[in-house]
């Protein structure tokens, strides 16, 4: 179908022609003029410059060029393939043969092209009731099966007029500096010179900015090989969560350097993953910021919401604003995971033991040097460890287990004076599961406030199964006396995680059971045992459950608490002997394992069922 304008005063002034038009004359014109013009364009070479770039500069056509590549719906390999040849030609004609965008009037033309390029592409969906703004799916390179081809020459022309009108209206000079330098290296800004910083950083893999900007940068003929420096999680390109955290720390350290003492950094937070807030808090605390303690939660209502934001539990409904202050000279603080400078000996020891406990919970059986490195990495001031006895701190919370070093598969290494024939691993003492009553009181109080919120939330929205973590987190932010453990760590000890990943209140029986688990520190013991299996280090006998029935119960607790990775490890590596379980218990174990495997991994779950041994009474 072609939509055309008549320039010679004919009526109607605007009309359509189709390949199957019922009007014979229009059908004839469509075949003779419209199709022939397209054929003519396809047969010729474009005489102007246009982006020659392959997407993300990936040469191999057999591999995805990025996280946004999709077979079928985003299966294009070059920037040019995203456009019909007619619109590619029209945009290229506007581009002034590749004249650098920094030179006028090319800068305005480049501005207009980047504003309209994606709307002129094959991503523009056909909708006879929707013409503007151009119906393209944001956040992706989705190309519908039926698309429309807007008039690119006219679109850029109209946008240029709008830009010129906007510039005329904003003709008054104002003191502003726009910079595109890396946030990890603000060399052009002096230290202690900025009054206020507002930051909306990229969170994990939520938005793939580099890939989504690639088409614009190609049309501008910018350097498109900077993506190794992008702060993002992108497993296709080998960018991990650790890379993201490291580069975020560098960026926040630069913000801390340029900000004046006593001034504020506001950070827009809009992630739904439970671990990201703890990571952000660690990053900002490590570089020196103090989190704001406020009785109310600030947020930015983004107004227009996507379909997912209206319907899905796992999307944030609005953007939270978190405020952090750069301390004044001489001011010091105590954070939950970092040890500040000039802290007294008793506080240092308390925080150090907490850090060691947290590390050995996640990495049981770690060697002494790994534990030491983890502790030192949490010190605000270098050399701070020298005045303290690390061995005494370690032995106060952990036990040493010596294991022989193997010479080969069958023989242990002979003893020597250097002690290289044994390897020491460290495991938390059994007393590590004992509850600190002061911390327990803080967690109980915080949980009570969240329980009230969940109850009121589900009364207003009874169709919901539970409350998402991001909503709980928003309420948790303005609790002043927060527990030492992060929210994601203790939430599982008070509430039940639903199949959709939300959180609900426990019923009476579940509540009593969770209270017993908290009192005995069972969930902490389960996590320590499962993490030992995940780490692939030997498990101490006293850390093992007493029987296969106990191991089955631990698997069930992991499933109920949403500890899916731990539950899978317990089933696959924990030594569960299904033959010692009844048929009903075997089915229960397989069901719990499938849930853990399905929600915690994309790999296929393959339960193991064995025939139960018959007792003599069964004969």
Number of helices: 19
N-to-C terminal Cα separation, in Å? 80 Å
Report the principal-axis shape. Answer: elongated
Helix content: 25-40%
The Rg value, from CA coordinates, equals 31 Å
Low-confidence stretches: 304-316, 332-336, 610-619
Backbone structural class: alpha+beta
Order of helices and strands: EEHHHHEHHEHEEHEHHHEEHHHEEHHHHH
Number of domains: 5
- pLDDT averaged over residues: 81
Strand count: 11
Characterize the main sheet: 5 strands, mixed
Q: Hey, roughly how much beta strand do the residues contain?
A: 5-15%
Describe this structure in words.
The chain folds into five domains: 1-44, no CATH class; 49-167, no CATH class; 194-325, Rossmann fold (3-Layer(aba) Sandwich), CATH 3.40.50; 345-433; 437-600, no CATH class. 40% of the residues lie in helices and 9% in strands. It has helices at residues 24-43, 85-94, 106-116, 152-169, 209-219, 241-258, 276-287, 307-311, 345-362, 368-376, 390-397, 437-460, 469-476, 487-490, 508-520, 522-535, 548-561, 564-573, 583-600; strands at 2-5, 14-17, 194-199, 259-269, 290-291, 298-300, 319-325, 398-404, 422-428, 496-497, 503-504. Strands 3, 4, 5, 6 and 7 form a five-stranded mixed beta sheet that branches. A two-stranded antiparallel sheet has the order 1-2. Strands 8-9 form a two-stranded antiparallel sheet. Mean pLDDT is 81; it is low at 304-316, 332-336 and 610-619.
